[in-house]
């Protein structure tokens, strides 16, 4: 599937150099909300100029081109092994051509592979579907915002948080308050709730694939997301931690069933450079489509 490999290189280029429309729209809205002459407004003006230059010059938006994370839905009959190999090969090419900063470091030797590939790098999640579309979502997850993510086990005496959605709200507020400006806000917040640590860690990241302006399909979660977003923007952390009215531009919450004895909450954060792009391939046709 040589053409798929080349399309994945283009997917990398789109994600690394062009911020999605929904994220840029939210940042422009935040800019207008901040006070004239404030540090927050100046910070957002710089961010938006950065976004424009990166898109015009086809250069990475940030020097940290992150950890590539792929979520791939594959029609039945397409080899998972082949798709995985195409992703690895495309990653090596994209690292050289775009270029991406080499970020894959061997835990034992501390040696950088130099091409963004290695054990578990990039991160690849594959699932089989009955559809005829191969859908590949790529996010470039910056490490600064990854470092400030938190996982919670409810109930929590420290937070005085019980096993309920109010407890979840306290977890998210705690994580963002502790992070302050270290992860380059305005943040997008993804939270996953469920039975197991690995389950909620993945679920929280999946939330970043949602459009900033979408509405949660569950009414109770929809109201909670809006309430937490308003709470976060009253913390005063502001863009890049300079203070202001915009600490977050989106809160997204996903849920799984839990075990009676567990209630895990993972809080993932994305910096303002919430980089993502989508490749869609109808396997009955030769063309590939890349969407922002």
Tally of extended strands? Answer: 9
In the predicted model, the low-confidence regions spanning at least 5 consecutive residues are: none
Q: Beta fraction of the residues? A: 15-25%
Enumerate how many helices there are, as a single number.
Answer: 8
* Class computed from helices, strands and strand pairing: alpha+beta
Mean pLDDT: 97
Major sheet: order of its strands? Answer: 2-1-3-8-9
Helix content: 25-40%
Q: Helices and strands, in N-to-C order?
A: HHHEHEEHEHEHHEEEE
Looking at how many chains there are and whether they match, the oligomeric state comes to single chain
Radius of gyration from CA coordinates: 19 Å
General shape: globular
- State the end-to-end CA separation: 23 Å
Main sheet characteristics: 5 strands, mixed
Give a quick summary of the entry.
The chain is an alpha+beta fold. It has eight helices and nine strands.
What does this structure look like?
By secondary structure, the protein is α+β, with helices and mostly antiparallel strands. 38% of the residues lie in helices and 22% in strands. The protein has eight helices and nine strands. It has helices spanning 2-17, 21-33, 39-57, 80-97, 143-147, 165-179, 197-206, 219-232, and strands spanning 67-75, 123-129, 133-141, 150-153, 187-194, 248-255, 264-270, 275-282, 288-291. The strands form two sheets. The protein has a five-stranded mixed sheet. The model has no long low-confidence stretch (mean pLDDT 97).
Search tags:
alpha+beta, single chain, 8 helices, four-stranded mixed beta sheet, 9 strands, 38% helix, five-stranded mixed beta sheet, 292 residues
């Amino acid at each position: 599937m040589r053409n798929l490999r080349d399309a994945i290189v283009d997917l990398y280029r789109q994600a690394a150099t062009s911020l999605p429309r929904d994220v840029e729209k939210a940042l422009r809205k935040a800019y207008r909300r901040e006070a004239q002459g404030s540090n927050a407004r100046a910070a957002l003006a710089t961010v938006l100029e950065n976004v424009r230059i990166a898109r015009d010059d086809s250069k990475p938006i940030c020097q940290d081109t992150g950890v590539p994370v792929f979520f791939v839905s594959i029609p039945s009959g397409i080899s998972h092994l082949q798709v995985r190999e195409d992703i690895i090969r495309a990653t090596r090419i994209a690292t050289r051509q775009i270029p991406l900063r080499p970020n894959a470091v061997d835990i034992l030797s501390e040696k950088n592979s130099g091409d963004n590939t290695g054990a578990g790098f990039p991160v690849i999640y594959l699932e089989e579907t009955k559809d005829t579309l191969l859908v590949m979502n790529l996010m470039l997850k910056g490490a600064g915002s990854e470092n400030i993510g938190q996982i919670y086990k409810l109930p929590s005496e420290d937070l005085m948080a019980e096993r309920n959605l109010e407890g979840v709200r306290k977890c998210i507020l705690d994580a963002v308050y502790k992070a302050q400006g270290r992860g380059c806000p305005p943040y997008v917040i993804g939270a996953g709730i469920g039975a197991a640590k690995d389950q909620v860690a993945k679920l929280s990241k999946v939330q970043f694939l949602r459009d900033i302006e979408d509405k949660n399909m569950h009414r109770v979660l929809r109201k909670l997301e809006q309430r937490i977003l308003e709470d976060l923007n009253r913390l005063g952390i502001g863009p890049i931690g300079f203070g202001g009215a915009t600490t977050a531009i989106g809160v997204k919450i996903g849920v799984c069933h839990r075990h009676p004895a567990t209630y895990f909450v993972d809080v993932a954060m994305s910096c303002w450079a919430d980089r993502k792009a989508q490749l869609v391939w109808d396997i009955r046709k030769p063309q590939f489509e890349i969407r922002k």
